[in-house]
């Protein structure tokens, strides 16, 4: 049987920090014990200078009593410092673990949200490596920092267990994600599906004629993209696959793939592409992508991609490069946010795999230079690189776009 690997989001960061706190406690206690022993050794070996050999025994006893009193005071002081340090470290551990990011005493907090957010004791007691005794459910701390996000989260979790999920706002999930509330908490309610009755067309007929027609209609389906180039920035799928070589691309990831047109074109060439999709204008694009027989996943570019390292032959991205930072956290359009996104993309591409930057709009010279500078740091091989102008809105106004096919190097 195969092995099973469990990786829990960013939980490892919590454990590493908590382990550091536990190590500090152990070192502090060890140093205190050593200090106490040194004081005791000093007290029992110290002999004060005597004016004569006829010193009375009463003065010796008095000096010994004084030494013991000093030792007791030092030991008591050390014990108080140890207790205070342990109290502070426990508080730091709680903050690092996320225990205090949500105020569970907040009035009108839904019972289901309270149940989900309440910390749970570890089944085997205190973890020896991390020092933790409780674990939290996986939910974004940003939800607890933003009052507006917490209000939305309250609506999202207000339901009766085993009944239908609330329908107060069909776009509430999208609003929470846009406020960096990822991952969202799980719910114990039944989803009301909006799909029409009837079976779907078999694959591959469903790629360009999804039936029964989803609520989005056919909005977003484009049969012309990547088949015929209008500008030099427009790369064709067949040309890219030819660059990759025979059997070079079997599985890919399209970041911000909209209606799934890129995945559909790849599916025609026996390449499976996972498409990250967010609803557009209130339209459930995930529903449309699924109706086409493709694989949608609801995730923003600002979230850690839930894939193992080095599994994709190809990653395709365009305008999603601008969404690398979460707008609610003030990170959008910052070079650091772009770096975090590109490093995560690099993580999931296999060695010699391809990164396809497809018609990225360089909205400013500074933004374009930031992207080029970061790409250079990865030392990818530039198989194709076109930085040029093209007309978008048929108004005669030319804008600068970057298209590139980059190959990940062997860093072994």
Q: From the alpha carbons, calculate the radius of gyration and give it in angstroms.
A: 31 Å
Shape: extended
Structural class: alpha/beta
- How far apart lie the N and C ends? 29 Å
Number of strands: 9
Main pleated sheet: 7 strands, mixed
Return the string of H and E elements: HHHEEHHHHEHEHEEHEHEE
Total of helices? 11
Average pLDDT score = 77
**Low-confidence segments, ≥5 residues, pLDDT <50?**
1-20, 325-331
Q: Helical proportion? A: 25-40%
Placed side by side, the strands forming the largest sheet appear as 5-4-3-6-7-9-8
Strand content: 5-15%
GO molecular function: methyltransferase activity
Protein name: S-adenosyl-L-methionine-dependent methyltransferases superfamily protein
Keywords: Membrane, Methyltransferase, Transferase, Transmembrane, Transmembrane helix
InterPro entries: Prob_Methyltransferase, SAM-dependent_MTases_sf
């Amino acid at each position: 049987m195969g092995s099973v690997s469990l990786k829990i989001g960013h939980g490892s960061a919590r454990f590493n920090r908590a382990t550091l706190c536990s190590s500090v406690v152990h070192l502090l206690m060890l140093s205190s014990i050593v200090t106490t022993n040194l004081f005791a050794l000093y007290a029992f070996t110290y002999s004060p200078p005597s004016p004569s050999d006829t010193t009375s025994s009463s003065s010796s006893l008095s000096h010994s009593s004084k030494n013991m009193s000093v030792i007791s005071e030092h030991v008591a002081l050390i014990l108080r410092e140890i207790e205070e340090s342990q109290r502070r470290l426990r508080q730091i551990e709680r903050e690092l673990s996320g225990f205090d990011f949500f105020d569970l005493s907040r009035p009108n907090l839904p019972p289901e949200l309270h149940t989900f957010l309440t910390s749970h004791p570890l089944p085997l007691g205190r973890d020896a490596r991390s020092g933790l005794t409780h674990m939290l459910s996986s939910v974004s701390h940003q939800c607890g920092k933003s009052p507006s996000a917490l209000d939305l989260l309250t609506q999202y979790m207000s339901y009766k267990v085993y009944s239908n999920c609330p329908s107060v706002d069909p776009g509430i999930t999208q609003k929470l994600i846009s406020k960096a509330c990822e991952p969202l908490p799980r719910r114990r309610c039944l989803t009301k599906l909006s799909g029409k009755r009837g079976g779907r067309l078999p694959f591959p007929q469903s790629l360009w004629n999804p039936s029964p027609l989803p609520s989005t209609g056919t909005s977003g389906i484009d049969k012309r993209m990547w088949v015929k180039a209008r500008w030099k920035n427009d790369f064709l799928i067949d040309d890219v696959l030819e660059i990759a070589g025979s059997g070079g691309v079997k599985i890919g990831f399209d970041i911000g793939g909209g209606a799934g047109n890129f995945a559909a074109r790849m599916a025609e060439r026996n390449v499976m592409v996972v498409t990250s999709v967010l609803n557009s204008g209130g339209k459930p694009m995930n529903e449309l992508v699924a109706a086409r027989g493709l694989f949608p996943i609801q995730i923003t570019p600002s979230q850690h991609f839930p894939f193992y390292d080095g599994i994709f032959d190809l990653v395709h991205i365009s305008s999603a490069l601008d969404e690398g930072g979460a707008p609610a956290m003030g990170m959008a359009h910052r070079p650091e946010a772009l770096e975090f996104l590109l490093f995560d993309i690099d993580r999931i591409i296999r060695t010699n795999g391809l990164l396809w930057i497809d018609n990225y709009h360089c909205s400013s010279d500074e933004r374009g230079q930031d992207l080029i500078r970061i790409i250079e740091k990865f030392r990818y091989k530039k198989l194709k690189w076109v930085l040029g102008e093209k007309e978008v809105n048929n108004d005669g106004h030319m804008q600068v776009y970057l298209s590139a096919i980059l190959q990940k190097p062997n860093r072994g």
